[in-house]
Each structure stands twice: as structure tokens, then as C-alpha cells.
Amino acid sequence: MALHRLFQLSSMLHSSVSLILRRNIGFSAVVLNRTKELDPVQKLFLDKIRDYNTKSKSSGGLVDAGAAYQKNVSEEVTKLQRLYGGGDLVKFPDIKFTEPQLEEVAK
């Protein structure tokens, strides 16, 4: 009986120690991975994203959009205003639905 209890206790101890070790190893891997230096491709990618972000904030819109792009955008906006009757193209239109008049039909 005592031997059976010892085996049960040993099994429970083994499973809990195993669980704790797995959690600690998993956490350690994440911590060690963050402190490790990025590979050159990842570093270049992150540098380009950060560079684009600063350029975008400084220009207040699209990066490297020249005069030809601005002219094209204004022509398209003018064309859309002409097609759809003018108005503000940036604002979402106010849509009003009316309730349909239903008639009761006798059976």
C-alpha cells in the first residue's frame, strides 16, 4: 500500500515538474530570442518601414508623390464630381429610406 502511494506521488511530482520545466524553457526561449540580434534581412525590412513611417509623417500623406500624381488625382476628382453631380466626395452621403406603403389584401 505504501509503495503504491509512493508511485502515485512520484507520478504527480514528475508531471508537475515536467510542466514547470516546459513553461520555463518556453519563456526562456522567448526572452533569449528578443535579446538576440536580428538577421540582416529582418533588420533591413524594419529600417525601411521606420524610414517610410517618418517620411509619411513629415509629408502628411503619400511618400514621394510628385506633381504628376497630384495632377492625376485632381483630374480624377473633377471627373467624378462631373459624373455624380458634384458635392463632397470625401463625406459619406446621407441616405434616407422611406417606409413603403403596404396595403392589406383580403383573402
Architecture blueprint of SSEs:
Blueprint: H1 2-35, H2 40-59, H3 67-83
What does this structure look like?
This protein has 107 residues and is mainly alpha-helical. The protein has a domain at 1-57. The chain is built from 3 helices and no strands. The longest helix is centred in the first third of the chain and has 34 residues, at 2-35. The protein is flat, with a radius of gyration of 33 Å.
Shape designation: flat
> What structural category characterises the helix and strand content?
mainly alpha
Largest sheet: none
Average residue pLDDT: 79
Binned, the helix content reads 55-70%
User: What is the number of beta strands?
Assistant: 0
Report the end-to-end length measured between terminal Cα atoms.
84 Å
Radius of gyration: 33 Å
**What's the total helix number?**
3
Order of SSEs: HHH
Q: What is the beta-strand fraction?
A: under 5%
Note poorly predicted spans. none
Pfam families: ATP-synt_F6
GO molecular function: proton transmembrane transporter activity
Main location: mitochondrion
Family: Belongs to the eukaryotic ATPase subunit F6 family.
